[in-house]
Amino acid sequence: MRAIRAIGYNCTCLYKVQKRGPMRFWMLIVIALVVSSIGFKKYVWFISLGYGFSVAALGCAMLFSFRASLDPLSAFLCLALVFYGLRLGMYLAIREKRSSTYGKALQKDTKSNDDVSVSVRFAIWITCAILYAVMVAPVFFRLENGAGPQVLGWIGLVFSVCGILLEIFADFQKQKAKKTNPHRFVNTGVYRLVRCPNYLGELVNWTGMLISGLAVFSGPVQWIAALIGWLGIVYVMFSGARRLEVRQNRNYGDDSEYQQYVKTTPILLPFVPLYSVEKYTWLVA
Predict the structure, then answer these.
(1) DSSP class of 266
(2) How far is CA 203 from CA 64, 179, 244, in A?
């Protein structure tokens, strides 16, 4: 709750200090609240479908609101958010609809609506909406503050595109491998680099978004908001990696080949000898 209050305080400060532009930061939160409310139908959608489609909606909103002053770099950054969010949202929706195996695994690892009180659902809803808004904050501040230096912006865009492509490749390769052998873990392609390459793609993408705004942030409040967004998604990705590790250990723990794989392949960060996060019980999201 302290974290939620801190985020709320920073958002209030953002509202007070912004005087220019056709859009205010609080509008991003409202848009994310509307889109992510899909989670009231199914609890897990707050952080899956609500996540992807909220990011896409926020990218569209910024494109529309700042259309009169868009420079090419800012337009590409917004389009990257739209593409990323739509692809992720559609991929998750199709996977959940078509894959009975994934649906069963999801039921084991997540709570149902009946297990989560209304007050908790509201808290998660509001927290997620604020998180999605601060995650796209670097792009918003670039638009709000008037572009600024371009070099870091283009570097950030390249990072984001690379992260999105990595996530696409990881999802494609996993689908292909599961069609061949649905009951075996995946350790081919980009899964030789890390065990959670799709989560790594997410980290690279959002690190790129943060980099794109480093030269244009104005004042400590904007820096704090952008860093909260980046640290928030880092935490969520490591939590997701832990959840996946627990599930895979349960499914493949007796497989000697799997045991060799997890001992030699980092879980999330390439070339960093971090092979397990299961013991870090504070990584819960």
Answers:
(1) -
(2) 27, 27, 16
Q: Are 202 and 237 in contact (CB under 8 A)?
A: yes
Whole-angstrom CA distances from 67 to 61, 142, 149, 204 are 10, 13, 19, 27
CA distance 203 to 209: 10
Closest CA to 213 of 132, 150, 130: 150
pTM of the model: 0.86
* Angle in degrees, CA 155, 158, 161, rounded to 5: 150
**Can you tell me the distance from the alpha carbon of 277 to that of 269, in angstroms, rounded to the nearest whole number?**
12
| Ramachandran quadrant class, 219 (left: phi over 0; alpha: psi -120 to 50; beta: rest) | left
pLDDT tens track for 149-189? 789 999 999 999 999 999 999 999 999 998 899 889 999 99
Return d(Cα 158, Cα 112) in angstroms, integer: 38
